[in-house]
Specification:
The protein has about 220 residues and is of the alpha/beta class. It folds into 2 domains: about 130 residues, ATPase, nucleotide binding domain (Nucleotidyltransferase, domain 5); about 60 residues, Nucleotidyltransferase, domain 5 (2-Layer Sandwich), CATH 3.30.420. Helix content is about 35%, strand content about 30%. The chain is built from 8 helices and 10 strands. The protein has a 5-stranded mixed β-sheet, sandwiched between helices. Strands 6, 7, 8, 9 and 10 form a 5-stranded mixed β-sheet that branches. Helix 1 crosses helix 2 and helix 3 packs across helix 6.
Length: about 220
Amino acid sequence: MNWLILETSSRVARVGLARDGVLVLATHLDDARRHARDLAATIDSFLKAEALVPRDVTGVMVSQGPGSYTGLRVGLMSAKAFAYATGCQLIAVDTFSAIAEQAHAKIHDQWIIADALQGQVYRQRFTRSGTQWQAADGLRIDRVEDWLALVTPGVWISGPGVLAYADRIPKECPLVPEPDIAARITSVFVVGATRVPVTRAELFALEPLYLRGSSAEEKAKLS
């Protein structure tokens, strides 16, 4: 049971390898370079370090978004190509569900946000039921000020958007710091273990959770 784990939803991409439910390797790619330059080479180095060949891989778990348009496409296309070439399983993990899993046990209610640029955020609220996190509403893109109008004092705020908007988040709302590499990869693996692999037909149709077109497409609409 060897699983590759690709998390490319943010500027810093993360790659991991899990064996029999245990994370054995994890690293991040150089944030000064594009994910496409290093991703394949990093996967290759992981397999060689564990004396594996591509067909020894049980499956790939990949973050589906939301997040960076380019990063998500690089990660998802790499995962799809690997699964298609080797015949291994492919599991797509929604990024915000993985982030929710990182929360401390004392947290029971949290907003997760990511920077959607142009003064907007991806946002979704999660609540804990027992030991499981559940989405309390759907994933959306909102203007920052519209999202802030929904935030109540005391609710925790987490996700990659915290760093971008920390100065605008009410001081009564505790902020969850960005986890280390291993924690982020592990959370993707934990969530992925509850998901059903995509079928061969679904593999070709799988797209990132981006909710809108690329920056170039958005600009074209305004021209």
